Amino acid sequence: MKKSTKVWSSAAAAAALFAVPACSGGGGGDAGGSGDPLVVGMLMAFSGPTAVEGAEVVNGCLPAAAEINEAGGVLGRDIECEAFDTKGTASDSVPAARQMLSTTSNLFTVLGPSTAEAAAAAPVLEEAGQVMFSPAGDGRFDRTELDYYYRLITSDTVGAQAMALHSQQQGFDKVALVFVGGASAQANIPPLEEALGGLGVGVTEAMTIQPEQPSYRTEVARILQNRPAAIIFEADAVTAGTFLTELNQAGGADIPIVTNTLATTGDWQKVAVNAYGGDEALAKSLQVVVRYAQEGGAGTETYVETLQSLEGQDGIDVPSFKDSAYSRAAYDGVILSGLAATKTDSVEPEDYNSAIPELLAAGDGKTVVTNYSEGVEALGKGEDIQYVGANGEYRLNEFHNVIGAFALYDWDPAAKELRLVNQLPADELEALASGQR
Length: 437
Prior knowledge:
Rossmann fold, alpha/beta
């Protein structure tokens, strides 16, 4: 018997439900009935060390569904968000993908798979002709030939290059690399070492640690033997709490910690504050380099306002995800799918897929739209549109990838949240990403 999967409805009165999706058919299509809700499959980790990735997607999908449904749906059909748990592993992702495709006749679009699962699961979705918006950092997708694959988040290669560029700008002569075991470490460490070397920054240690161990004292001691100017770090909240606590206990509290998107979540920040014994101490150490989340744009404002309107609904965490470029990319992926379906008058991925790049491309005479209802209205008038969404403008390349801007955030001890310090020089980062530096 198939296990129930969690379904989130965007209706204001609905709570979290557990339901078995309707059986029959493959991905996409009208087999579920012309009036049935369209399902956004969230093919992500909802359990295990990378479960935060599932939470990021929930906080993008639900606001998008709410916005679309408020505007009358996609060709008159409501949107629902349904979770398919990959558990953050390649081996679990393929059965989850196949279950999603075989049991969800009204599958519309997919959010995922992520880094650990994409190499295994994305080809399954591609073969089924299913549009997917993946946050996978895997560098193997930098030049993907998959027609149905879109990445609205920069790859780990570019993220690693951004941390390397930041390290050089900070004047760090040598750094240690500490990444939790799994696909992310494999994707980050090689481009980091290459970029650091090209920028003249030495590496004292390139270490992969296993997640959620009871102690990392041995690893901390190794790092402190050749004391680095900074530690470039990536780990889930549980692992980070243990590692950073023991780093502090061993006398490494003054070493800057340069990290990335995992540090944008409330759980991670809470354990980091505890590890450093307070906000003031954490503020002296934490340096977060992540994709720059545009502030103040109309698309951003719509996303944040819609997310805030859902506060209290199961799965919604406004403080943790309102500034998340990953949640915003998930939101934009659902909105894009809805607009593409409207443009092509079809909810079939094989029909609306080709319209997605067109909707993101700038062009003379195009009408810029920043939300779903604006887009539907403009399309109804026969206008060509460019969607500029929660993450701002996407410059999609021929491989359905974006580079994007990166910025440095530190910890504001008064506000108890991350604070924007500055953007990294876009020209220098693009030169690194293109191999011209």
